[in-house]
Amino acid sequence: MVEQQYLEDALLQMRKLKAMADKAVAQVTDEQLFATLDPEANSLALIMKHMAGNMRSRWTDFLTSDGEKPDRHRDTEFERDAADSRERIFSLWEQGWTRVFDGVGALTPADLQKTVHVRGEPHSVVQAINRQLSHYAQHVGQIVLLAKHYAGPGWKTLSIPKIKPA
């Protein structure tokens, strides 16, 4: 059944995105995790914090409540808090991804016919999942780019390595 295949693939793609981001941020120091390229840029930590906040909001009671929870303060996800440390950021990150995996994993093919809301806007469940996949992919790309920049020559590729000239 194509619906079940879609759900399985959506979950697989989410897991791949997390794995890629995890491998990227594992290659940076604490200082690099919180560094910014310029005053308007986000650090790796803030991107991860934002994603975690988004995941908590979107995947908590996914089928039964608006995906933008009233207790979410999105703007603060882009601010470094005094309590932010590598451990805290990674804890939020893991909690966020757990919500994603549990949320998508709990869906059934019949759920794909339902409507959910994000910021009051109706979405089919497929649209909502695709919206999140796209959002996460965008930020994981940012994470990989920044981590590669900071790791420099010590970077360990996350995909097929380039063939080095003889």
Plain-language structure description:
This protein is mainly alpha-helical and 166 residues long. It has one domain: Up-down Bundle (Four Helix Bundle (Hemerythrin (Met), subunit A)). Helices cover 56% and strands 5% of the residues. The protein has five helices and two strands; from the N terminus they run ααααββα. The chain has a two-stranded antiparallel sheet with strand order 1-2. A hairpin with a 2-residue loop joins strand 1 and strand 2. Helix 1 packs antiparallel against helix 4, helix 1 packs parallel to helix 5 and helix 3 packs parallel to helix 4. The protein is globular, with a radius of gyration of 17 Å. It starts with a helix and ends in a 15-residue tail after the last helix. The mean pLDDT is 95.
Record keyword descriptors for this entry:
Four Helix Bundle (Hemerythrin (Met), subunit A); single chain; mainly alpha; 5% strand; two-stranded antiparallel ribbon; 166 residues
